[in-house]
Amino acid sequence: MPPPIESLIVNCKREEPFSPGCIDKSLK
Question: Which residues contact 26 (CB under 8 A, 6 or more apart)?
Fold first, then answer.
């Protein structure tokens, strides 16, 4: 199973804060 969306957002903020996928998940 994939990790929770919250974990993905945290990882994105740490590794790629301006990643389009991260911004999209944060908005949704």
Answer: 9, 12
